[in-house]
Design goal:
Largest sheet: 8 strands, mixed
CATH architecture of the largest domain: 3-Layer(aba) Sandwich
Number of helices: 7
CATH class of the largest domain: Alpha Beta
Shape: globular
Distance between the termini: 55 Å
Number of domains: 2
């Protein structure tokens, strides 16, 4: 039952070429930096990544993009990552852009064992009708496009079918975790993290604090240990970068 492993390198040792990853975080908030850096050191190629976005240039998943370790990305937006945009538009990677709520529910459904679900989000757009550029070709041509999706009417309203997401690994950052894998997230760092853990066949949590079993009360648990296979203690003083540091002017 004790799921704590020595470090991030041990935790991702079985990740291999072509592995799929569900990675928590929003911008640089709640990103599993230690696990991403371990994958970078390992040099695993051809990764397929599912995440809200791909960090920023050189940080978070941007580190793997810079090293050309990513083959495909499913995300809600390109974000403030110029290298991500450049690789997509130049045809170096394949990108599936998904509505943020639909992406979150696809991850949750994958963890809950639900194969697919209907949603009104995307009806009447290229999400439902197909034709979104997934990969660009030479000179800005479109090499691969999204397929049309099934639609149905319920109660007089049209819905589009979205398939669940399951990945080989779920990479997560938690504020606290006990040795059985029960997790608590700090404020907005909760974002996609529980969903990515649920969607991973092997969920790996890097925790800023690892506490004894029982230190986290049942009502405090935001991700049950049943979804978690490995827990990695984050080294003390590890950096938690901010995308844009904004300071309020002093009021006198």
């Amino acid at each position: 039952m004790d799921k704590v492993v020595r470090d991030a390198d041990v935790a991702v040792a079985d990740a291999s070429a072509g592995s799929s990853l569900a990675v928590g975080g929003f911008g640089l908030c709640g990103v599993p930096f230690a696990l991403i850096e371990a994958l970078h050191r390992k040099g695993v190629p051809d990764l397929s990544v599912v995440s809200n976005n791909c960090g920023t240039d050189g940080r978070g998943l941007g580190l793997l993009l810079d090293a050309r370790q990513v083959r495909r990305v499913t995300a809600s937006y390109i974000g403030e990552n110029a290298e991500f945009a450049r690789q997509y538009l130049s045809g170096e990677i394949e990108v599936e852009l998904a509505p943020q709520g639909s992406l979150a529910e696809r991850l949750r459904a994958g963890g809950a064992g639900i194969a697919a679900f209907y949603t009104p989000t995307g009806v009447g757009t290229m999400i439902a009708e197909g034709g979104l550029p997934l990969r660009y070709g030479p000179g800005g041509s479109v090499a691969v496009v999204s397929r049309a999706r099934e639609t149905r009417e319920f109660g007089g309203r049209t819905y589009v079918l979205e398939e669940a997401i399951r990945c080989d690994f779920g990479l997560v950052r938690a504020a606290r975790a006990d040795r059985f894998g029960n997790c608590v997230f700090h404020a907005a760092a909760r974002n996609f993290n529980p969903l990515c853990a649920m969607a991973g066949k092997v969920a790996i949590v890097e925790a800023e604090e690892v506490v004894p079993v029982g230190a986290i009360g049942p009502d405090e648990v935001q991700l049950p240990g049943a979804f978690v296979q490995r827990v990695v203690p984050v080294p003390p003083g590890a950096e938690k970068p901010i995308e844009r540091l904004s300071l309020r002017e002093e009021v006198r």
